Amino acid sequence: MTNKSRKQLYLYFAWLVSVIATLGSLYFSEILHYIPCELCWYQRIIMYPLALILGIATFTNDINVKKYVLPLSLIGWCISLFHYLEQKVPGFAKLKACADGVPCDAAYINWLGFITIPFLALIAFTLISIFMIILRKK
């Protein structure tokens, strides 16, 4: 496998992760009727365009997209980490007052005692960031 085909594969995987994350968030809100909190909206504001940007880059083989995707992904990662800590660390939720609507420390799902929606977003942003870092290094 050539270096160029590896890069295209990493780009494809990053796009696949962003599409799965986007469809997952739409499933939670549109099918299961979970109302997103404020921090969920911020994560969506970053993830949804990543699915589009990475999709276009994948089909045009534009490896240079990494310089636009990585900063967005790292910002999304920070928001997801903060959101997850708000849910799982006692006292962390008090750092930011909740706006009207759904509180940010509420957990619709809690699979295996630690997998929540912000955790799933954190994993997606982590994978996308790793793929973009690998693209930078090669």
From TrEMBL:
GO MF annotations in UniProt: protein-disulfide reductase activity
GO aspect biological process, one term: protein folding
Gene3D superfamilies, per database record: DsbB-like
Localization per Swiss-Prot or TrEMBL: Cell membrane; Membrane
Main localization (coarse): membrane
Membrane topology: Multi-pass membrane protein
Top-level division of the source organism's lineage: Bacteria
TM region positions: 9-29, 41-61, 68-85, 111-135
Disulfide bonds, paired cysteine numbers: 37-40, 98-104
One Pfam family this sequence matches: DsbB
Keywords: Cell membrane, Chaperone, Disulfide bond, Electron transport, Membrane, Oxidoreductase, Redox-active center, Transmembrane, Transmembrane helix, Transport
InterPro entries: DiS_bond_form_DsbB/BdbC, Disulphide_bond_form_BdbC, DsbB-like_sf
One of the record's GO cellular component terms: plasma membrane
Purpose of the protein: Required for disulfide bond formation in some proteins.
Family membership noted in the UniProt record: Belongs to the DsbB family. BdbC subfamily.
Protein name: Probable disulfide formation protein
Lineage, opening ranks: Bacteria, Bacillati, Bacillota, Bacilli, Bacillales
